[in-house]
């Protein structure tokens, strides 16, 4: 008989890797795989590089097919984003299969330099609750988190294509046509006979 909840829930960000330019928008799906848990509440905190990325309180949207609702937040700090979502007090609404929680948007700052940075779940500030048999309300059933990697590419990173050396077309000399001399027609005049 289980006396403690089994930690089998995974939270992930997809697409896990994106290449973007300064000024672009990054859209990530937030997904949950509950494993054997019956999840009814999720509080997650995302950490990001504030030198390259920014977000706001309106950047998170719950998936339209989900029974989850925002119950706290979002709270946006300098380099973190936190929100708590939960289902209603209805055991039939608990999350028992893999699904999308929602989407979150980040803006790549105009002055962002080239390089890669991760958007990660702060596991010390992320909690997943389950109401399965043997689970206690205060126990965190989070097992694994999967981050996303953002690769910023600036114009300096894009190599300028080197044109192929222009090939000067060789001009074939025009063959000289030797004119065949045309015989000049003439009239041969016999000398007159001189009569004394």
List the helices and strands and how they pair.
Elements: E1 9-14, E2 17-20, E3 25-33, E4 39-47, E5 53-54, E6 60-62, E7 69-76, E8 80-86, E9 99-108, E10 115-121, E11 127-130, E12 142-146, E13 148-152
Task: Summarize the entry for a quick read.
This protein is mainly β. The protein is 0% helix and 40% strand.
Structural class: mainly beta
| Mass-distribution shape | elongated
The fraction of residues assigned to DSSP E strands is 35-45%
Average of pLDDT: 83
The number of distinct β-strands equals 13
Helix content: under 10%
Note the run of SSEs as H and E.
EEEEEEEEEEEEE
CA distance, first residue to last residue: 164 Å
Compute the CA-based radius of gyration: 39 Å
Q: Segments where pLDDT lies below 50 for 5+ residues?
A: 184-191
Based on the structure, what is the oligomeric state of the protein chains? single chain
Number of helices: 0
Largest sheet: 7 strands, mixed
Task: Explain what this protein looks like in three dimensions.
With 196 residues, the chain is mainly beta. The chain is 0% helix and 40% strand. The strands form 2 sheets. Strands 2, 4, 7, 8, 10, 11 and 13 form a 7-stranded mixed β-sheet that branches. Strands 1, 3, 5, 6, 9 and 12 form a 6-stranded mixed β-sheet that branches. Strand 7 (69-76) and strand 8 (80-86) form a beta hairpin. Residues 184-191 have low confidence and may be disordered.
């Amino acid at each position: 008989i289980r006396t403690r909840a089994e930690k089998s829930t995974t939270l992930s960000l997809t697409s896990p890797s994106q290449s973007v330019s300064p000024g672009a928008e990054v859209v990530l799906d937030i997904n949950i795989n509950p494993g054997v848990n019956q999840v009814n509440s999720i509080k997650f905190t995302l950490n990001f590089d504030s030198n390259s990325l920014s977000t706001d309180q309106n950047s998170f949207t719950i998936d339209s097919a989900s029974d989850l609702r925002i119950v706290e937040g979002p709270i946006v700090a300098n380099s973190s984003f936190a929100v708590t979502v939960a289902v209603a007090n209805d055991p039939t609404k608990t999350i028992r299969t893999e699904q999308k929680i929602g989407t979150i948007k980040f803006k790549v700052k105009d002055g962002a330099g080239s390089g890669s940075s991760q958007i990660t779940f702060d596991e010390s500030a992320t909690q997943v609750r389950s109401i399965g048999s043997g689970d206690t309300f205060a126990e965190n059933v989070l097992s694994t988190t999967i981050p996303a990697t953002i690769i910023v590419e600036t114009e300096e990173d894009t190599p300028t294509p080197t044109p192929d050396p222009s090939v000067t077309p060789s001009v074939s000399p025009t063959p000289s046509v030797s004119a065949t001399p045309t015989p000049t027609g003439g009239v041969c005049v016999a000398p007159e006979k001189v009569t004394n």
